[in-house]
Structure prediction request, 333 residues.
Amino acid sequence: MSRSTPTIAADGAVHVAVGVIVDGSDVLLSKRSADSHQAGKWEFPGGKLRSGESTREALERELEEELGIHVRSAYPLIQIRHAYPDLQVFLDVWRVTDYDGVPHGRERQVVDWVNQDRLMKLELPAANYTIVMATRLPALYVISDSHRLGPAEFLQKLERALRAGARLLQLREPYLPEQEYRNLALQVGDLCRRHHAKLLLNATAQIVVDCNAHGVHLNSQRLRALTTRPLGEDYYVGASVHNEEELEIASRLGVDFVALAPVLATSSHAKATPLGWRRFEELCAHMNMPVYALGGMRTEHLSMARDAGAQGLAMISGIWDAEDMEGVISSCR
Prediction:
C-alpha cells in the first residue's frame, strides 16, 4: 500500500480503496508485510486514498503500484466501516471486472489466487471477512412465485433461470401448507444443486435442515422474534428488512445479507410507502453487510442500486414475468 498521507473520512477513519479481482472460482489476495498494520495476514489488495483522489482513481493507482495491472472496468461492491483497537478504517470495495496485465507482487509482497471456498479459513484482517461474503454473493437474488404461476410452470421457469445463470434463490411461498412447502423445497433443492445454485428457504431453521437447503431467509416476523443467529456459519442467513430498526436487528443477529424493501412502488404491496433511492442509500451507509434492493426492481436499476451501496437486485415479477428471462439474468452480472 502507498505510504503517502491518507485521506480521512468524516468519522475519523482512514479511507481505503479495495479491489476484488476474480478469475473463475478464485480470488486474488495479497499478504501484508511484517512491518504493517495487521502484519502477515491475507487481504484484498488496495490502499489509502490520497488527498483529492476519488475512490476509482485510488483503486487504479494502488492496483498499478501493487500488482502491475491497469484497471479497465470496475463497479462499487460494498462499503465497510471497522474499528480496530488502534485504527478505524473505511473500506470502499470495488469489483474489478476487466484489466490489462498479469497480477504479480510488484512490491515484493506475496500474492496468490485463492478458491472462494477457502477464503473464510484464511487469517484475514477482521474487516475483510465481510468482503468475503460480498464476493460470494451474486448480483441477483431471485425470489420464487410458485403461488401465482403454479408449481409446474414455476419449476419449468426455474430450470430456465438456473440454466441462464441464476445462482441464489429464495423459496418464498407463504400460502403453501407446510408439507407442500417441504415437498416443493426438496424439488427446488435438487434443481439448484444440479446447477450449483444456493437455495434459501423462507421458513423455519428446522425445515432448512430437514430439506438440506443452503440457508434460511428470515421474514420480518421471524427476524424480530430471534435473539441469536438461527443457523451456524455453514449456512447462509438472509433477512427481509424495511426500516432502520430491522436493519439493526439483522446486524445484531449477524445475518449474512439483507433485502431492503420496498425501494420503489410495487403492485403487490400497493399500500407500502417506497423508500426511494436516497433513503435506500442512507440506510445502506450504516450497514456492514451486503444489501439487495427489493421492490419494483428491473435490470435498468442495477447500476443505480450499486451506486447507492447495494450488492445487487432482488427480483420477483421482474424475473418471472420477463419476456426474455435469460436476458434479464444475463444482465445482472
The chain has two domains: 14-131, 140-331.
